[in-house]
Amino acid sequence: MPGDRGPRGSGPVTGSAMVRGAAGLTADEAAAALRRDGPNTLPAAKQRNPLLTLAGQMVHFFALMLWAAAGLALLAGMPALSIAIVVVVVLNGAFSFAQEYRADRAAERLRDLLPVRATVRRDGRAVVVDAADLVVGDVVLLEAGDRVCADGELTECGLLSVDESMLTGESRPVRPEIGGSVFAGTYVTEGHGVAIVTATGARSRLAGISAVTASAVRPRSPLATQLHRVVRIVALMAVAVGCVFFAAALGLGRAGTESFLLAIGVTVALVPEGLLPTVTLSLARAAQKMAGRNALVRRLESVETLGATTFICTDKTGTLTRNEMSVVRVWTPSGTVEVDGTGYRPVGELTGSPAAVRAATALADSAARCSPDAHAVEEANGWRPVGDPMEVALHVLAARAGVTAAPQPVGRRPFDPRRRRSSVVDVDGLHVSGAPDTVLPLCAEVSGADEAIAAFSRAGLRVLAVARNAEPAAQEEQGGLTLLGLVGLEDPPRPDVGAAIASCRRAGIRLAMVTGDHPGTAAAIAAEVGLLGPDRLVLEGKDLPADDEALGRLLDVDGVVVARVAPEEKLRIAKVLQARGHVVAMTGDGVNDGPALRTADIGVAMGASGSDVAREAADLVLLDDHFGTIVAAVELGRATFVNIRRFLTYHLTDNVAELTPFVVWALAGGQIPLAITVLQVLALDIGTDLLPAVALGAEPPNRRTMEGPAKGGSLIDGKLVRRAFGVLGPAEALASMAAFLVVLLGGGWWFGEVPDTALLATASGTAFTAIVLGQLANAFACRSESRWVGRIGLRGNPLLWFAIVFELAMLAAFLLMPPLPGLLGGTTPSPLGWVLAFATVPVVLLADTVHKAVRARS
């Protein structure tokens, strides 16, 4: 639409003769060519060998450290520990491989959701087809913002400018001429053209460089950088703790080999091997959920950035409104006409005085001629526009007025967002349509037009002026045009956009409407949907301050409307808001919106009506062009960030409980036996950390997710550390150690004595069971940072219940399935031991509840 899409050419009108193939192929010819040549798709990128990928998961830094530990254990005569370490390496590597493989497959499925289309002439009329269905001989219609989907020879060219940087590396667009070539993978940046397809798929020039493109590696995202930093810190802490225990064991008189193996076992147990694949899976699941809500995430790391959004700059047309343009009123110097009929069904009538109806009919004729390829087609579920919705609405108006087919144009200047008008030259002269402030200055007489514009704008109608020069020799958009009248178009708001805007306000997200529309129309729609702020601040692009700091202060309020904005001004708006500390989401659909979409923290492109350039530049593509979809994506992004913190808390709590028995043994100078063995620690990592952590990463958003500002900052902050190391971890550790000591004391052991082997195995099995059950309670406690388990409820995350069942099954196997109990060093607890182990559950939940209550009170 004017002001809301990419440029459609500039400069003098360029004439072009109709040449061979102008009517295009027939449907039957296209089908036969498709069967002969195959689809217009590039050869599939070579997939990484799954076996090599799996092997790579076994030889990274942490894995190499574990392999070394396994070898040392074997040389020291401890094959059981060596085998256990190998099992940890293999299981963690297999888990990481599974998540990476699943993420790759999910990314491929998500890419398939992104529509790539082309407009072609078939059977003598323009139709939209999938790019994969293009065949040699197709006549392709190219407009600014389109991606060229096949190699072709130009037969018509109206100020065409093509960005070939993807092929040549040259950033300056080229201007091909009639007879020249355009290539698949390039973008039309200006003007329009018609080309006959000469090569598709693997035979295109793009196919030769596709392998290089597919091998490009994207830099690591901020989220990935932060996660790797967390892993490095925890790994260094694990090595430091291992060194401390090595020194402590030597000080207590243990042999050097035994002390070294103890230190290696502690270090291995504390390495967070499963953390990164768990995060990847959490992001992939969120991206899949967003796709189910019509939001296509093009980069997984964008999921987390979405959750941190603090300012959304949204377009109006199609995002806040339905993008179903209908002409509802026409003003002419002879009077005003009401138009009966909505949508794109070309049936209705014009109501007014006979003179006004005749004038409106002449206006509709000229307006439709300015966009010769736009029309509506009937489908099973109604009428669908082909082309710009506003231009299609003008064609529908012409059909309702009884206008017959127009003559072929001999020259054309398509819509340009700087000129904000379009024109066509045919045998009847020059026809011009566009924004009133660009058309009226070219007209000889405009009396009454300003009052009509004001009335239309107050009613929330989009206004278009139509003029004509009937001189056969008229070629240029110069003065002396005859104003035929004004068109009032209605694009009603989406019915649920008001609720989505209210949700943003509750979430502390500021909103701005940034549109190319008339300020009166934009303000009317903003007020109707509830976006316009209490100050009712409405700005025009030409009036924005030149100073960036002043512009930032002006825009950094909620509910501002910026109308008549050019694409380059959208880029500036994104930058000044970022300079003020905002995480900015910017919507766009035109080719010139690409820089703004790339600069914004989250570029949001329209998937249904936007240009291919905008979709390629964006981080998020709205498959339904709906503002509510942005809000749903922000909600899922916030939930994903919280989920990552949930399973980080879960991991760290378990590490505290696993490490405490070794700390107690060292502080007691060996007078208290080790409550759990290194093999039991490894079994806990295998049996408790992985699946429940994955389940916590799949926790759905709750009703409080969009209440208040986003939770930003570091993944591991003071609050998380205090909760894991000061509350949940100590509660689980104390309960498990108490159970261990009570069973020992109840069996006749006293401090400093060497316990009976069977008694120690029973007590150790009790401590092991207590930690497993404590982790069960910990999983439910980690579902919320502020609400106790009773308020969260036990439903809402079926995957967590599956993980708990698996955890209990693993516990039973470790305690009952030979030879695991003897290998690990713990047997089934005594009746008293079972009671004490199960007591860990209420202890952990009570500590969590008290901590949350104290935090709420403070």
From TrEMBL:
Catalytic activity: ATP + H2O = ADP + phosphate + H(+)
Alphabetical list of InterPro entries matching this protein: ATPase_P-typ_cation-transptr_C, ATPase_P-typ_cation-transptr_N, ATPase_P-typ_cyto_dom_N, ATPase_P-typ_P_site, ATPase_P-typ_TM_dom_sf, ATPase_P-typ_transduc_dom_A_sf, ATPase_P-type_domA, Cation_transp_ATPase_P-type
Keyword check for Translocase: yes
Native organism taxonomy: Bacteria, Bacillati, Actinomycetota, Actinomycetes, Pseudonocardiales
Membrane spanning stretches: 51-70, 76-95, 230-253, 259-284, 733-752, 758-778, 799-820, 832-850
UniProt domain Cation-transporting P-type ATPase N-terminal: residue ranges: 14-78
Protein name: Cation transporting P-type ATPase
Family: Belongs to the cation transport ATPase (P-type) (TC 3.A.3) family. Type IIA subfamily.
GO cellular component: plasma membrane
Keyword Membrane: yes
SMART domains, per database record: Cation_ATPase_N
